[in-house]
Amino acid sequence: MSLVLDPTAQDLLFREARTANTFTDEPVTDEQVQAIYDLVKYGPTAFNQSPLRITLVRSPEARERLVRHLAEGNQAKTSAAPLVAILSADNEFHEELPTLFPHFPAAKDVFYSERPAREGAAALNAALQAAYFIIGVRAAGLAAGPMTGFDFAGVRKEFLDDDHTPLMIVNIGRPGEDAWFPRSPRLELDQVVTTV
């Protein structure tokens, strides 16, 4: 059985896409960011909680503040990327549930009145949304360079607050020269699926 999605789109989103390590200096526009968000906001999350929050790092001053919290191997590529996004989980996402889940507005208090429950749900569902975000960047014809090699506490203190947990940093732009490392191996279906 073949997939419904056009093979060219399959390649763009998955088979040919990889983490970019260099970028051109072509800017990423606000219109591109809007188009990416307008697509990925439809990805499913539990109770439609949508806890992902995106902090766009554009100014040279903010970039400098961010780079000092990155692992040494990530600093140059983040310094050169046209746009950098800090993706975080909003641990107070439940405040939006009456709007986002209107057929059961009490979900806010029934399931998420305790902070530990919110933190677990926010981490899982924002991670789902982060994956959608990367696919959306690719759908816009751009390259994404997601990274977790950074000082999480430092980034949180510098850019967020105690209600937001950083998940990853994503460099965004057109791929530059030698942008790709060789494709790493993947597991086969029989290595990951168990039928019971």
3D architecture notes:
With 196 residues, the protein is of the alpha+beta class. It is built from nine helices and four strands, in the order H-H-E-H-H-E-H-H-H-E-H-E-H. It has a four-stranded antiparallel sheet with strand order 1-2-4-3. Helix 1 crosses helix 7 (115-139). The longest helix is centred in the middle third of the chain and has 25 residues, at 115-139. The protein starts with 6 loop residues before the first helix and ends with a helix. The model has no long low-confidence stretch (mean pLDDT 96).
Task: Summarize the topology.
Layout: H1 7-15, H2 30-40, E1 52-57, H3 60-67, H4 72-80, E2 83-90, H5 97-100, H6 107-110, H7 115-139, E3 143-147, H8 152-159, E4 164-173, H9 189-192
Antiparallel strand pairs: 1-2, 2-4, 3-4
What brief labels describe this structure?
single chain; 196 residues; alpha+beta; four-stranded antiparallel β-sheet; 9 helices; 4 strands; globular
Order of helices and strands: HHEHHEHHHEHEH
Gross morphology is: globular
Structural class determined from secondary elements: alpha+beta
Strand content: 5-15%
Q: What would the average pLDDT be, to the nearest integer?
A: 96
Q: State Rg.
A: 18 Å
Give a quick account of the main beta sheet: strands, pairing sense, barrel closure.
Answer: 4 strands, antiparallel
| Order of adjacent strands in the largest pleated sheet | 1-2-4-3
Q: Helical segment tally?
A: 9
What is the helix content?
40-55%
Uncertain parts: none
- First and last CA, distance: 23 Å
